[in-house]
Write a structure and sequence with these properties.
about 350 residues; 13 helices; three-stranded antiparallel β-sheet; homodimer; DNA-binding; five-stranded antiparallel β-sheet; alpha+beta; about 20% strand
Chain lengths: ~350, ~350
DNA sequence: ATTAGCACTCGATGATGTAGAGTGCTAATA
DNA sequence: TATTAGCACTCTACATCATCGAGTGCTAAT
């Protein structure tokens, strides 16, 4: 048995209706709603077929049908039309925050959750290996040296380093010179022990300090590799009764609060997605997410490109009956706006 | 009618029992439990008195009694004994994160929530007005200048500034000199328009750039005045049935996610508390919190001192029947450990 | 191939009854 | 006078039961 044209239409009607109402939909509803002019009995037969094929399920005997994961998947893959959803004034709103990328991303999460009534997550962008652009050491007082580390892409990191020895200005200048001449243009993997040794030689008696500084530099570079995850709209999940039963919500909210699993989810297809290019949308339905507590949810992610080769993700988490058309439309729109902002920022 | 000795004992027994079980406690229970050797009938009479006095309430006729806010308040003020609760190995654990205060505070929130099974909040410390220690401008590339702003207390802020004009090294050096000679030692309120004018004079044609830099400096200083709030253990709130009814939890979780109200709560008594000295503990019971969604909760806060005159707050949010003794004990212990860490860090 | 008709299933809803916990009051007691 | 035993009363929680309505699957007629 295959999906003929009529079955597709019926399936579509079922899903559309279910997305709207959240109630299992029965044969009579479809009979009246669709333009097929079929009696409920015929619809019933077709529905039995659709169930056998795995596209819909009955919550219990004598209830209507609801889409199965496979049904949603079919819908998303072949029948969905994106609604272009304008996020008005967002650009101005966001540009204001653009001086610090973390703030901007957090704000994006907030905006999305408010606009969609779902939960949202945004990751910081993931850099491959950042090269060191330059390092600047400054004496703060007798005991502390501030290392300002600028990485490729103008990522700035500060590390306070405790010096056990007194440093005069000349020494600091010299150290600056040494650090920069050796480290400029290198990434974490390229800083070998050999290089470290040479630096120590040149620095004379300040071996210990050099070690500490290098530690700080290494840490700074490493930090950039970690995805941070911002979430928003967690409370929205409590509004959907199909998620709100029993302790399932608790697990779900825990996942959203803990963020570790979210980071993994965002990370997993990042390479592939970014290869596909900016703006790529992914939909995970129910069990398709690798996260256990989300088996009753759907997750839609989009990849944004901060700059050449630097990608992060935006995700929307909602019930399986989320409004996919709107969500996908909104995300695409958002990606466009972010693109503009990031491009302007660079130029 | 006054609280005589026996009433106090009975009240204590009721509260203790209720804290343990979470169930309304009846006269028979108290009769058996306490060492007063009274029949349940006598207890009943006393309980009627206690209710009249407002220390306990009946959820409904023919249920036992539970403490009222007034009852809890009396308990916390006069009968509670702190349990000293060791947070083992926390110090080592925290010291590792101590290089960045935000990380440390976030970790504190996490640790507390895991240890207590309540929700926790930690604010960043609040500086009064930070004076500017020094400013360093660095040319990153033709278009960008990085301003590293170090405030009193070695708070480091980075601001990237877009330059519309080309800057050679000499110019940057000169600007550095101008900025520092004028701004060092000043706080936000002390930078007057007069000073700004003089700076612009000295900088010659770079008026616009000076403006941008000053904006950045002002922003950096202002940011430090804002309390950031970290929360953890939000999900724990779903474990307490007395909070989990209806939409109350939703509001509560929203408050914990939104954080604005938490910041206000933390801010409100900060001045007073810090005047009282480090480690001060505050207990807000039910309606005593200014936050509406927390009227069924109790909040216990403690003030920590990062350094001379710089205070922040740690708070634990739980049901009104939270284990006050343990919570207060834990917080005091934590304050001690934080103290050690911060003191060591400075020296 | 479609449809009308019908028996059947199941969840949701509300009414009813019961058990148990706890109370307040009264009258007896020390 | 303070305490207590005893008892009628109240209220909740829980289970049982009947009913209603939505929706189904199947059969036989079209």
């Amino acid at each position: 048995m295959e999906l003929d044209d009529r079955k597709v239409k019926i399936l579509q009607a079922i899903i559309k209706n279910y997305l709207e109402t959240g109630e299992p939909v029965g044969s009579r509803t479809i009979s009246k709603l669709s333009d097929l002019n079929l009696s409920s009995a015929t619809i019933r037969n077709e529905m039995a077929d659709l169930e056998e094929l795995g596209y819909i399920v009955q919550p219990h005997t004598s209830a209507g049908r609801i889409p199965s994961d496979k049904g949603y998947r079919f819908y998303v893959d072949t029948m969905m039309e994106e609604k272009v959803e304008e996020l008005n004034n967002i650009k101005a709103d966001l540009e204001e925050k653009a001086d610090k990328i973390e703030n901007l991303l957090q704000h994006v999460a907030k905006l999305l959750s408010v606009n969609t009534n779902y939960a949202t997550m945004v990751t910081t962008p993931k850099y491959r290996s950042r090269k060191c652009k330059f390092i600047q050491l400054t004496e703060i007082d007798e005991k502390n040296v501030l290392a300002v580390i600028v990485l490729e892409g103008n990522i700035v990191k500060n590390k306070m380093i405790q010096a056990n020895e007194y440093l005069d200005k000349e020494m600091v200048l010299k150290l600056n010179l040494v650090m920069n001449s050796f480290l400029q243009g290198l990434d974490l993997d390229e800083i070998s022990l050999g290089i470290v040794q040479k630096m120590k030689e040149q620095a004379g008696e300040h071996e210990r300090l050099i070690s500490d500084i290098l530690d700080a530099v290494a840490k700074a570079m490493q930090e950039e590799g970690n995805l941070e995850v911002y979430t928003s709209g967690v409370t929205n999940m409590l509004s959907y009764p199909e998620l709100n039963d029993g302790k399932d919500v608790k697990d779900l909210i825990f996942t959203l609060e803990d963020k570790k699993e979210l980071a993994m989810l965002a990370d997993q297809d990042l390479e592939y997605d970014s290869a596909e290019g900016n703006g790529r949308i992914q939909v995970y339905i129910g069990n398709e997410t690798p996260i256990d507590s989300m088996k009753n949810c759907s997750v839609v992610t989009a990849t944004y490109e901060l700059e050449e080769g630097v990608y992060g993700k935006v995700g929307i988490i909602g019930p399986k009956r989320m409004d996919y058309e709107r969500v996908v439309g909104t995300l695409k729109n958002l990606m466009g706006q972010l693109d503009d902002i990031f491009k302007n920022k660079q130029s």
